[in-house]
């Protein structure tokens, strides 16, 4: 059923996601602080609004895709003061679990439905409409959100109550950050031992070292021709975004009392990498730092 959707945050991810909602037959009114994003959105059939509230006014559903938790809480505070009860609010940004729960509470106090639905799949997935959504929130809110999420993605999971989507996202990306460092260390060690990249790949990809960081995002050129290592480590998934997610995982670990020693170490390693000027490279370029080449921009 065609719906009227307010879409706030039309950046690298939000822009193409909103465009896919237009393609699916929905009426989308969008807002962003950056004029160039508004122009790009207009070209995709999105009606540009003058403020977040103007984009949300009269909408059945409002979706936010913003940089961080403080932006989401700020925008949802405005929305929750103005929208009618029963409106569905979806946040697809990657934010800390605490901010996600705060946003849900703002919506609930207003009688609105709410879902945290962060994504995996990057800008390529956003354009192609193949994102994976990890959702948290009440059953009724998720049921209403699911068809829209399916218009922007391929896999949609209801992970549990408020904040569960963000929890799934940061746990998954903590696995990813740690495993990429592990795979990179193994290739760097293999090089010192005179082992060819292909030989290590052939063995590990069918043995107990097998993982996504090896078989999809292999950090050395050759064995997986589509991995960013074959393209000068152009992202892909930028190291700065990996660092953001690892730091969110650390904040959650601290708040919940979970022990995540390797997650903490991974955050430190990516922190050094970003500090050396490599935040814009794909996160698999971490292998260069592990080879002792990380300081060279
Ligand atoms: P982006 O910086 O390109 O887009 C964010 C947009 O939000 C910007 O255009 C900014 O102007 C806008 N914005 C900020 N405050 C606003 C406000 N108050 N009102 C209206 N607009 C506002 O970032 P992105 O790459 O699109 O990422 C968005 C979110 O998705 C982030 O939380 C990010 O961590 C997450 N994410 C990104 C990727 C990726 O590959 N880029 C992958 C998965 C998840």
Highlighted features:
297 residues, binds nicotinamide-adenine-dinucleotide, 52% helix, single chain, alpha/beta, 13 helices, elongated, 9 strands, 6-stranded parallel β-sheet, N-(1-d-carboxylethyl)-l-norvaline Dehydrogenase, domain 2, 3-stranded mixed β-sheet, Rossmann fold
At the fourth level of CATH, the homologous superfamily of the largest domain is NAD(P)-binding Rossmann-like Domain
Order of helices and strands: EHEHEHEHEHEEHEHEHHHHHH
Mind telling me the C-alpha Rg? 20 Å
- Integer count of domains: 2
Say what the CATH topology of the largest domain is: Rossmann fold
GO molecular function: 3-hydroxyisobutyrate dehydrogenase activity; NAD binding; NADP binding
Organism: Methylobacterium oryzae CBMB20
Keywords: Branched-chain amino acid catabolism, NAD, Oxidoreductase
Pathway: Amino-acid degradation; L-valine degradation
Structural overview:
This protein folds into 2 domains: 4-162, NAD(P)-binding Rossmann-like Domain (Rossmann fold, 3-Layer(aba) Sandwich); 170-290, N-(1-d-carboxylethyl)-l-norvaline Dehydrogenase, domain 2 (Orthogonal Bundle). 52% of the residues lie in helices and 13% in strands. The protein is built from 13 helices and 9 strands. The protein is elongated and about 65 Å long. The structure holds nicotinamide-adenine-dinucleotide. Residues 4-160 form the 6-phosphogluconate dehydrogenase NADP-binding domain. Belongs to the HIBADH-related family.
